[in-house]
User: What shape does this take?
Amino acid sequence: MRKNSFSAKKSTRPERVFLKPSGNPLRDKCGIFGIYGKEVDVARISFFGLYSLQHRGQEGAGITVTDGKKLKSVKGLGLVSSVFDEEKINSLKGFASIGHTRYSTTGGNKLCNVQPVVLNLKDDVFALAHNGNIINAMDLAKTLPSQDKLSSTSDTEIMGWIIKNSKGKSWEEKVFTSFSQFQGAFSIIALTKNKLIAFRDSYGFRPLVLGELNGSYITCSETCALDTVGAKFIREVAPGEIIVIDEKGIHSLGKVRSIKKSFCLFEYVYLARPDSIFNKQLVHQVRQRSGEILAHESPVGADMVVAVPDSGTSAAIGYSKASGIPYGEVLIKNRYIGRTFIQPEQHIRDMGVRIKFNPLKEIVKGKRIIIVDDSIVRGTTMKKIVKMLKNCGAKKVHIRVCSPPVTDPCYFGIDTPDKKKLIASKMTVKEIEKFIGADSLAYLSLNGLKKASRVKSDELCTSCFDGKYPMPVAGGFRKDVFESEDTNLRMNPNQRISKFVD
Ligand code: AMP
Assistant: This one.
């Protein structure tokens, strides 16, 4: 048993970083990728895998490889392409690797927050790449023998130590015995000296898929990453399942009982790439169907349907198809700008919208336009876009949003802001319409969105739209709230109030 891992002699152990509660957090909606393959350049394949998962996190990236004796990591702030170069990729030699792209909304960017998290033990190593959020992380931290040394802003690090301290001869046994202690969302790829362990919480909030590439096995967040590296999709890791990939191949340790499958509906709305497939549903088609359903639910006369690119494109195509109103391009996106949502300060976010989209003035002038986007969160993006279109001489600007109003914060890995910053939690649709300055505003109904997903209605997490959390979250740990430098956000009691579905 680890007596006091955190105070182990510094000289014998690689540097550990203790995060302060006031420091900046790891924040999720991350992309994870892992590969086991003796004959391949695992670091290079991980690099390309992460590259295709860039949309899930743009603030930092890291890859950890094993050569059977030790783990080696390269991590950095920024995009995958700026963290890694030829030299760094070549320095990562081994037969298995895991990688991570990191996402955050507020607070600063620090290298110590970039994953994979590596636990350097006296005579062993264990690394984790995590997508999700553990709501009981703080309680778990208190059970650690050396909690006084653990500042605990990383739930992933806490998970690592809990696993390490759990019963079991092997790492996978330890994962199994510790599994039920973790409440919340976790799709994880762990790396030991000689194997990969992929596991997914029993609710299946965040995606995790398996693939094969000429005898090498891959596990990652989305199927688009499999396509990118030329791998074949095998199947999804089931909710509650633990998979081990080692020299004997790929094997499942079985499943922890799933109480309530709760795949995140917002993955279909926004988070995932349109070319990914979950639950046998191509994300692009789900979005297109949601646009079609919205056109039936909320029709309006107009000259053209346009998308907020790229997040609204698939849905706008669907809306146009069902309404018979021609689809056209009006907003030209600067593709070299990250997601505006990601900018921590409101004034930078405001500017971000302007530098991100430039309207085709000549086309907009005198037209009645239906503008389709996937979601409205704070209302910043849409307000700016409507103003831009009106300034260009649009006769009418109608907004159609292909998801229901986002009313409640997510505890399961998406950084939807604090409830009071969600525009739909404090305004009615009519009030939002007025605030944004649109001629009309309509959202897709929750039933319409569920229908578009074609996933069984009771197997989806819809909590950001209806506040019905699939597990109790009262008092739950949210990385972004706990670690926020914004004291209002940290103290807000609304974060701790929730409805619980049984
Ligand atoms: P807002 O300006 O706050 O209303 O943000 C709405 C925009 O952010 C929409 O265009 C969405 O595509 C996008 N969006 C929605 N959810 C997220 C998220 N979790 N992370 C980043 N962007 C998001």
Summary: Residues 278-455 form a domain with the Rossmann fold fold (CATH 3.40.50.2020). The two ends are 37 Å apart (CA to CA). The chain has two domains: 17-259+479-498, 278-455.
